[in-house]
From TrEMBL:
Residue ranges constituting the Competence protein CoiA-like N-terminal domain according to the UniProt record: 14-51
Domain Competence protein CoiA nuclease-like: 58-188
Protein's name in the database: Competence protein CoiA
Pfam family, one: CoiA_N
């Protein structure tokens, strides 16, 4: 940590002298001043300390990033490592009612949720900015817990780069034909960042690309080939209806964009819906029946009403089926006008796409 108590006052490690006794603001135990060549000056707990807020073994990235963020926020007042004893938490930076966390080390969704809720209990909001280790894992589903949803910008995530001293905002994160796409923007001051947020981009759509469609198709076939558990389960269901998952109707690929909430499961979901499509089925029945197998994660502690995004993905696909003349929806009942045609197999489907689409 960069700050500690000396004679009841907060001091910065940079300005601290070696001879003094410093205390941790959270546990009030003595901490050691470290001024070496490898890391910037900081305080560390003694070995065997049981402090909950202990961040010993803090990386240089974390120490540097916190200091850089204070400069980023300047001229707005912000404080480093303020201990909030009501919730026993210590945000990296406190800026009025906003807690800013520069998360570099691994954290589970349960612990993250507790900390977000802690701030909420204090009527505070929290901004989670991620370090370099997380940047490398961006496409992994374990990152979903850090997503924000910002109106006009879609699903967003934030990163700090200690080499360039900048805030990176990845926005409009969407799965397009099962692949995560995003746009990015960099900010060098807090004011620049806040100002920009008022002017969201006009167009958030990614459009169609035949190569992506073919990749999606090959991917689902490979999943079967390599015995992916979920894909096999769905394949069995398709077989029971006389279909092959890799030969699903083309209409499964047209409504191709979805939020990270549904993500890579969107294609499976659309195939499930087509399998269950039946006359006089109610929309809500179809929703419940088809989503059951998917087991979509609800772990989005920074987003309100995750359910809304699932329902959106579902109704987008139904709307596409209506538009293309396959179904009609009247008073929440579904009437099938014609069933979308399944291909004989994967090869026939590929050939058709290359020739016609
Ligand atoms: Zn402590």
């Amino acid at each position: 940590m960069l700050t500690a108590y000396y004679n009841g006052e907060i001091v910065y490690a940079q300005q601290a002298a070696n001879k003094n006794v410093y205390l941790c603001p959270a546990c009030m135990q003595q901490v050691i001043l470290r001024k070496g060549n490898l890391k910037i000056p900081h305080f560390a707990h003694m070995k065997n300390s049981d402090c909950i807020n202990q961040q010993d073994g803090e990386t240089n990235e974390h120490l540097n990033g916190k200091q850089q963020m204070i400069e980023f926020i300047n001229p707005h007042p912000a404080k480093l490592e303020v201990y909030l004893k009501e919730i026993n938490q210590r945000p990296d930076i406190l800026m009025g009612n906003l807690a800013i966390e520069f998360q570099c080390s691994p954290i589970g969704v349960k612990r993250l949720t507790q900390r977000i809720n802690g701030y909420q209990d204090m009527k505070m909001r929290s901004l989670w900015i991620l370090g370099s280790n997380y940047r490398k894992k961006f496409c992994s589903t374990s990152m979903n817990k850090f997503f924000y949803y910002i109106k006009g910008w879609g699903f967003c995530m934030f990163f700090w780069n200690t080499h360039n001293h900048d805030l990176e905002m990845r926005f409009n994160c969407q799965f397009v034909n099962s692949k995560l796409r995003y746009q990015k923007m960099f900010f060098y001051t807090w004011d620049e960042f806040i100002h920009k947020l008022k002017f969201p981009p006009k167009n958030l759509s990614y459009g169609h690309n035949i190569d992506n469609l073919l990749k999606e198709l090959t991917n689902i076939r490979n999943k079967i080939f390599y015995h992916d558990k979920f894909a096999l389960k769905l394949q069995n269901l398709c077989y029971s209806k006389g279909h092959d998952i890799a030969a699903a109707p083309l209409v499964c690929h047209f409504q191709n964009c979805t939020t990270p909430v549904v993500g890579r499961k969107y294609l499976y979901w659309k195939i499930l819906i087509l399998n269950y499509l039946d006359n006089d089925l109610q929309v809500e029945q179809l929703y419940k029946k088809s989503i059951e197998l998917l087991k979509i994660s609800e772990s989005y502690p920074l987003i309100k009403n995750v359910d809304k995004f699932k329902r959106q993905a579902f109704s987008d696909f139904l709307a596409d089926l209506c538009k293309r003349g396959y179904i009609i929806i009247k008073e929440n009942n579904i009437y099938v006008k014609k069933y979308p045609a399944w291909f004989h197999d994967y090869y026939q489907k590929i050939q058709y796409i290359i020739m016609k689409v």
